[in-house]
Design a protein that fits this description.
Two copies of one chain form a homodimer. Chain A is globular and about 50 Å long. Chain A is of the alpha/beta class. In chain A, the strands form three sheets. Chain A has a seven-stranded mixed sheet, sandwiched between helices. Chain A has a two-stranded antiparallel sheet with strand order 3-4.
Chain lengths: 229, 229
């Protein structure tokens, strides 16, 4: 029997308009260290916008989510519409604003923002096949959007109001609740696991932490996930 | 006494036209794990070109080295001309084609390609101040260019012809020799250290390896470097 295989769903390349780079690279590292094979995917469409990561301001240009995600994947990436759920044991979604700008529009419209249909269908398919889904950082909001209006009420978490965060954890948590999820508060040192739905979440950079803490938290979650595959 | 401090010199964001993203992120992680503070820098100028990382083809657009490097640094980056050598104990340069396209023109002209004067001056200043320089992957060619025409004949390495590599290790090694360096062959599992000049090199993705091996080799080199600071 070969190694278990994980699909990694990216949303661009850079925390403010794409996948958070540290989270993405450390996810790939942890998957490799856990003995899991992986393949990267991203939607083949224009990014919502391009943010100058030095100034935080939008730039007057257009970039493609898949093409930019390919930077993180060193060219080894496929369009999301080529993802066959049968070939994989789990789906992992790193964070970054890209998941809330390109996978959904949560960054602009909160829980009312639409989810990309390919992203929605991928998440629903992994769940329907009884496979594991792991969502880091802001990505649990994308998972919440995928199950909006369904019978699935997943336990999800983007962190806790008890610890320091640069983001509005309470508002995001309320938003997930408003569309049918069962959000809970999780320390940055921990992860949440919905056993019934087989969904892991870990706050990552939603909470204040350095890269060493980030690596440890991603690695712990991936290690536990690996045992469930 | 505070933590030792390391300047990390980036060259964009993406293996084919900037800093190799895995090498850069894993460098930051290893520095943090070694208890070292770091700050990122990059030249504030246009990239040589922009490569579509899915197809490998050039794109008709212009990107700035500093602005793109800011993606890896999550916005925490300064222009290279603001780097004060006195504030740092070491300089670390991750690889990627960016160092041979934006720091020098080695990717296009081999050892005849010009080095960016700010990059050259930064490397020379760290060396002149007796501080450590660590160059990963292709970055030793940039260090070689910095010392071209000087009294400094540094021992450098970009890997070995004895192991599998996607690149022309022998030609690059010959090129470094032709401009005054003393290149040597180093296994991907090892690093080179020039004690007189205080320069570490490790092959990283110049040799065939996966992300787990890469992380281990960067971490080993940074740990040994940390003891020299």
């Amino acid at each position: 029997m070969g190694a278990k295989k994980v699909a990694v769903l990216l949303s661009g390349c850079g925390v403010y308009d794409g996948s958070e780079i540290h989270e993405s690279v450390l996810t790939l590292l942890s998957l490799a260290n856990a003995g899991l094979d992986y393949e990267c995917f991203a939607p083949d469409k224009d990014q919502h916008h391009v943010i100058n990561h030095r100034t935080g301001e939008p730039m007057e240009e257009t970039r493609n989510v898949l093409t930019e995600s390919a930077r993180i994947a060193r060219g080894e990436i496929k369009p999301l519409n080529e993802l066959s759920v049968e070939a994989f044991d789990a789906l992992v979604i790193p964070g970054g604003f890209g998941t809330a700008k390109n996978h959904t529009k949560w960054a602009f419209e909160g829980p009312a923002g639409a989810i990309d249909t390919e992203v929605r269908d991928a998440i629903r398919s992994f769940h329907a096949a009884g496979k594991v889904i792991t969502a880091f950082c802001m990505a649990p909001t994308t998972v919440a959007k995928a199950f909006e209006g369904t019978e699935v009420h997943a336990q999800l978490s983007v962190g806790t109001t008890e610890e320091s965060s640069p983001y509005e954890i309470e508002a995001i948590t309320d938003g997930m609740k408003s569309i049918g999820s069962i959000p809970n508060m999780v320390s940055k040192a921990d992860y949440s696991y919905d056993e019934e739905n087989r969904i892991f979440c870990s706050p990552c950079y939603m909470m204040d932490m350095g890269i060493a803490e980030l690596a440890a938290s991603i690695d712990r979650t991936i290690q536990v996930m690996a045992k469930k595959l």
